[in-house]
Amino acid sequence: MRKGRGDLASSDGKRSTSDSHARDELKSDLADFEARLQKKQKAHLQPQNTAARSSAMGIAFRLTTELVAGIFVGGGFGLLLDKWLGTGPLFLLIFFALGMAAGILNVFRTAKELSARAEADAKNNSGD
Amino acid sequence: MAAEEAASGAAHHAGGLAIDPMHQFRVETIFPFHIGGIDMSFTNSAAWMVGVAVAISALTIVGMGRGSMVPGRWQSVAEMSYEFVANMLRENVGDSGKRFFPFVFTLFMFVLFCNMGGMLPYSFTVTSQIIITFALAFFIFLGVTILGFAVHGFHFLHFFVPKGVPAALLPLLVVIEVISYFTRPVSLSVRLFANMMAGHTMLKVFAGFVIAMGWAGGFLPLAFMVAFSGLEILVAFLQAYVFAILTCIYLNDALHMH
C-alpha cells in the first residue's frame, strides 16, 4: 500500500525530487513504525499493571485499613496527650473524632487515586 | 503460655493429627543467644529472612552472571523484576526517583520473596508478623520524613497545610492532616501483615476440614483449598506490589510535595 503511494508520487513528474521524496518516505515510515511500536509496548506493559491493581478484595482491604488506622492513630495520640497532661478522657475523645476524620480523608484520597489510575488505564486500553 | 502449650500437647495426644491453625506463626528459637539480658536468639523467622536474602542475591547475581544478549530463564526473571520496579518508580516518582531504585528494589524483592516463601509447605511466613512489617513501614516513614525535611527544609511543613481553606478551619485541618500523615506506617504495615496472616490461617483451617471430614466429604474443602492457594499466590504478589508502590508514592510526596 505504502509502496504504491510512493510510486505514484515519483511518477507524478517530479523526478528531480524523487531522492528527497524517498528520504521523506523513509522518515515517515520510521515515525509510523515508532508509533506502532509504542502502542504495542504500551499494550504489553499495561495489562500486567491492571491485573495487579484490579483485585477488588485488595482495594476493599486497602480502604478498610486506611479507615481503621486513622481511628487508631488518632486515639493513640489522644491517649498519649491525656497521659502527659493528666486530663482525663478529654483529648482521647477529641482525637478519636479527629482520627475518624483523618481516616475518612485517607479513604477519600485513596479512592480518588484509585479511580484516577483506573481512568488512565481505561484510556490506555481504548487507545489501541 | 504454659496452659496453651499443655492444651496443644493434649490435642496432640488425643487426635494424633492436631489441628492448630496458629501453630504456623510460632517463632521458635534455633540458636539461643543473649546480649546483656536482651534476647537476640536466631529464630526460624531470622532463618527465613536469611534464606530470602540469599535467594534474592542468588537470583540477581547468578541470574545475571552470564549477562548474555539473549537472556536465559533466570536472567529473564532478574531483568523482569528490575524493569518492573524501574517502571513503577518512573511512573510514580519520575526521573528524580532513580537514585532510590536500590532501596525500592530491595524492599519489593524482600517482601515478595517473604510472601512467596510463605506459600511453600512447612514454611514460616516472615511477613505474617506485625513487628516485621511495622519495622519495615516505620523505617520507610522515618526515612521519607527525613528526606522531606532534607530536600525542602522547614518548607516541608507546608505539606500539612491544605490549600484554599478558610483561616478559621485551618487549625482543625492541620491536626487532621498530621494524624493522616502518621497513619501511613500503621496502615502500610497492618495491610501486609493482616493479608498474610488471614490468608494463611484460612488455608490451615480449611486443611483441617479436609482431614476432619475424611474420605467422605473432604474433597469439597480440598477443591476450595486448591483455588484459594492460587488466590493466595496472587495476594502474595499483590501485597508486595502495594507495599512497594506506596513507598514510591510517599517518596514522591517527600520529593515533590503536592
Question: How is the topology of this model organized?
Answer:
The complex is a heterodimer of chains A (128) and B (258).
Chain A: H1 2-10, H2 18-53, H3 56-85, H4 90-127
Helix pairs in contact in A: 2-4, 3-4
Chain B: H1 2-15, E1 29-31, E2 34-35, E3 38-39, E4 42-43, H2 44-63, H3 73-92, H4 101-117, H5 130-152, H6 170-217, H7 219-256
What is the compact description of this entry?
The complex is a heterodimer of chains A (128) and B (258). By secondary structure, chain A is mostly helical.
Which tags fit this structure?
heterodimer; A: 128 residues; mainly alpha; 88% helix; disordered N terminus; B: 258 residues; two-stranded antiparallel ribbon; 4 strands; globular
Verbal overview:
The complex is a heterodimer of chains A (128) and B (258). In chain A, 88% of the residues lie in helices and 0% in strands. Chain A is an all-alpha fold and 128 residues long. Chain A has two domains: 15-54; 56-119, no CATH class. In chain A, α2 (18-53) runs antiparallel to α4 (90-127). The longest helix of chain A has 38 residues, at 90-127. Chain A is rod-shaped and about 90 Å long. The two termini of chain A are 21 Å apart. Mean pLDDT of chain A is 76; it is low at 1-14. By secondary structure, chain B is mainly α. Chain B has one domain (29-256). Chain B is built from seven helices and four strands, in the order αββββαααααα. In chain B, β2 (34-35) and β3 (38-39) form a beta hairpin. In chain B, α6 (170-217) packs antiparallel against α7 (219-256). Chain B is globular and about 70 Å long.
β-sheet strand percentage of chain A: under 5%
> What's the end-to-end separation of chain B, in Å?
49 Å
Number of helices, counting only DSSP H or I runs of 4 residues or more of chain B: 7
Strands of chain B, total number: 4
Number of domains of chain A: 2
Helix proportion of residues of chain B, in percent?
A: 55-70%
What's the rounded overall pLDDT mean of chain A?
76
Oligomer kind:
heterodimer
Poorly predicted ranges of chain A: 1-14
Distance between the amino and carboxyl termini of chain A:
21 Å
Arithmetic mean pLDDT of chain B: 86
SSE series of chain B: HEEEEHHHHHH
DSSP strand content of chain B:
under 5%
| Residue share in helix of chain A | over 70%
Find the structural class of chain A using helix and strand composition: mainly alpha
Shape of chain A: rod-shaped
